[in-house]
Write a structure and sequence with these properties.
Elements (H helix, E strand, L loop, with lengths): L1 H8 L9 H16 L7 H4 L8 H5 L2 H10 L5 H10 L9
Length: 94
C-alpha cells in the first residue's frame, strides 16, 4: 500500500519501495529507539557533527522522511467496510 500512496502523492519523485528499503527503514526506527532518541529531532540523527554515522550511511534523511509520510499498511479505500466488522481492520493484515 505504501507504493500506491507514493505514486498517487508524488508521481514524479516516488521510487517504488522494495524489501531492502523497507527493512532499512524499520531498522533505523529500531536503532533510533535503541539509542534512546525519543523526543530527539529526526534531523539531528543525520547531522555530521553530533548525529550517528549509521543513519546517513543507510539512507538519506529526505528518503526517510518521504517513506515516513507515505507508509501505509492497508487499503484505505476498503477500510470503512472492513472496520464495520473489525475495529482493528487498519492493522489486522500485518
Amino acid at each position: 500500500m505504501t507504493n500506491l500512496k507514493g505514486r498517487s502523492c508524488c508521481p514524479e519523485t516516488w521510487k517504488p519501495l522494495d524489501v531492502t528499503d523497507s527493512r532499512a527503514y524499520i531498522g533505523l526506527l529500531i536503532l533510533a529507539r535503541v539509542n534512546r532518541s525519543r523526543g530527539e529531532a529526526t534531523k539531528s540523527l543525520w547531522k555530521a557533527e553530533n548525529g550517528r554515522a549509521i543513519f546517513p550511511a543507510v539512507m538519506s534523511l529526505k528518503k526517510f522522511h518521504l517513506i515516513s509520510r507515505m507508509i501505509r499498511f492497508d487499503d484505505h479505500s476498503s477500510r470503512n467496510s472492513r472496520r464495520l466488522k473489525d475495529k482493528l481492520a487498519a492493522v489486522r493484515v500485518i
